[in-house]
Structure formats: C-alpha cells, structure tokens
C-alpha cells in the first residue's frame, strides 16, 4: 500500500476518538477534573479525517472548534463518555482513547450547593468505569488504541496497561516533561504493541497525530 497518499490512507475506515478531560460533579456548582486540553485528541480527529476516515469525536468539556469533517459528540462525565463510546464502538475499525478520564467520581453528588462547615472536609470517591478496557472487551473486531500518561517507568507502566486493558496498541507520553504534557502544543510518544514499539519524536500534536495514525494503519492493513 506504499503508493497511497496520506490523504487516502484511512479512506473507508471508521474511527472513534475520545478527547479532553471528564468532569465529575460534586454538587450543582463544583466538580473534579484535570488539565487535559483535548488538543491531542482533536489533532488525531483532524488528521484522521484528512486521511479519509469517517471520524466520531467524543469530547469532554474543552474549548476547541470541531475539526473539519468530524462528527462530534459532547459529554461531561466519565459515565456519559462510556455510554457514547459503547453506542458506536462495535461499528468502528479503530477506537482511540485519548481522553484524560477522571479515575474517580464523588460517591454521592449533593443535590444542593454544599455549605462551608468545619476546618476539614473529606469527600468519598468511587472508581469510574474504564472506558477503553470496556470497549476492548466488547468490540473484538475493533483495533483499540490507548494512551498512557506516565511520569516514571514509562515502558513498564505502558506495557502493563496494554495487557491489562486488552488493547492492541498504546501510546505513552512522559507527562513529567511539561513541554509535551497536558495542555502543551507539542507531544512526543513511545508507541507499544504486543510485538513491537516505535518512538515518535517531539513535534506538534498534529505531526505526532499523523505519525501515530500511520502506525495504526500499518497494523490494521499489514
Ligand atoms: N482510560 C479510560 N477510562 C478510565 C481511565 C482511563 O478509558 N476510567 C483510558 C485513557 O483514555 C487512556 C488509558 O486508559 O487511553 C490510560 O489512562 P491512564 O490514566 O494513563 O491509566 P489508568 O488506567 O487510569 O491508570 P493510572 O491513572 O493509575 O496510571
Ligand atoms: Ca488515570
């Protein structure tokens, strides 16, 4: 397939991508979230569409325009992101979990604004569902790609997530380096799959997205 131009590399392929943070309510006016900007997931969506894929972009709360040619589904919480993902996952050729899903949510969401009380406050949290692991378990024909945000032992933690979540590929980034971490304009990845790995050098998120999509394309059409 070497003769294919990048514009045609993913034509006819259906790709769903999660992007951005999730936001977990504590009460009607407060939430727990993280600093994910959504830039990497939106760059992947834009590049996949440019390469000819039919793209569904499942986005948490971000401040970014919808990339050309993508169908966007906006969600807030991890549970909503899971529901949106499962609604489309089995019909996808590729599912990429780029979202920074909140690992926990409040055990009880207060229906009224919480009032300030004593000097200390403890909030009980419960674990959120693992979206990408659920997609991988329920969509056997879909090539499922995760991200791994790590600050240390990147390969070891990424490979254990690859196996534990039943993924086909995982893209690890070292978020201890602030020039490529959350909210940065650049990224750099080390991509792992069961019998291989490939580094993608620091570049704009758009350039990194194009290279990751080419790696995915090589794996789905060897
Ligand atoms: N992920 C997910 N659902 C969750 C948590 C994570 O789908 N509830 C996905 C992310 O979108 C990413 C991958 O799992 O593709 C790895 O996320 P990461 O936060 O690095 O891993 P965790 O499994 O949450 O482990 P930890 O935060 O403890 O490192
Ligand atoms: Ca996590």
TrEMBL record:
CTP binds at residues 97-99, 103, 113, 129-132, 147, 161, 165. The keyword Flavoprotein applies. Binds 1 FMN per subunit. Keywords: Decarboxylase, Flavoprotein, FMN, Ligase, Lyase, Magnesium, Metal-binding, Multifunctional enzyme. Residues 15-222 are annotated as: Phosphopantothenate--cysteine ligase. Pathway: Cofactor biosynthesis; coenzyme A biosynthesis; CoA from (R)-pantothenate: step 3/5; Cofactor biosynthesis; coenzyme A biosynthesis; CoA from (R)-pantothenate: step 2/5. Its EC number is 4.1.1.36, 6.3.2.5. GO terms for biological process: coenzyme A biosynthetic process; pantothenate catabolic process. Residues 10-218 form the DNA/pantothenate metabolism flavoprotein C-terminal domain. The keyword Ligase applies. Its cofactor is FMN; Mg(2+). One of its GO terms (cellular component) is phosphopantothenoylcysteine decarboxylase complex. It comes from the Bacteria. One of its GO terms (molecular function) is phosphopantothenoylcysteine decarboxylase activity. It catalyses: (R)-4'-phosphopantothenate + L-cysteine + CTP = N-[(R)-4-phosphopantothenoyl]-L-cysteine + CMP + diphosphate + H(+); N-[(R)-4-phosphopantothenoyl]-L-cysteine + H(+) = (R)-4'-phosphopantetheine + CO2. In the C-terminal section; belongs to the PPC synthetase family. In the N-terminal section; belongs to the HFCD (homo-oligomeric flavin containing Cys decarboxylase) superfamily. Catalyzes two sequential steps in the biosynthesis of coenzyme A. In the first step cysteine is conjugated to 4'-phosphopantothenate to form 4-phosphopantothenoylcysteine. In the second step the latter compound is decarboxylated to form 4'-phosphopantotheine. This is Coenzyme A biosynthesis bifunctional protein CoaBC. The gene is coaBC. The chain holds residues 176 to 397 of 397 of the full protein.
């Amino acid at each position: 397939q070497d003769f294919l131009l990048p514009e045609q590399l993913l034509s006819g392929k259906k790709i769903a991508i999660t992007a951005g943070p999730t936001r977990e309510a504590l009460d009607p006016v407060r939430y727990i979230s993280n600093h994910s900007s959504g830039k990497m997931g939106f760059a992947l969506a834009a590049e996949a569409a440019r390469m000819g894929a039919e793209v569904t972009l499942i986005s948490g709360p971000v401040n970014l325009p919808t990339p050309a040619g993508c169908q966007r589904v906006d969600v807030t919480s991890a549970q909503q992101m899971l529901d949106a993902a499962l609604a489309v996952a089995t019909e996808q050729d590729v599912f990429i979990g780029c979202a920074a899903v909140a690992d926990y949510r409040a055990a009880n969401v207060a229906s009224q604004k919480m009032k300030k009380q004593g000097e200390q406050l403890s909030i009980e949290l419960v674990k959120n569902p693992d979206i990408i692991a659920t997609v991988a378990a329920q969509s056997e024909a879909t090539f499922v790609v995760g991200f791994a945000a790590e600050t240390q032992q990147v390969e070891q933690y990424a490979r254990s997530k690859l196996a534990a979540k039943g993924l086909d590929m995982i893209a690890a980034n070292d978020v201890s380096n602030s020039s490529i971490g959350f909210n940065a304009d650049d990224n750099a990845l080390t991509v792992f799959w069961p019998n291989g790995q490939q580094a993608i050098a620091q570049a704009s998120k758009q350039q990194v997205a194009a290279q990751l999509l080419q790696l995915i394309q090589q794996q789905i059409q060897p």
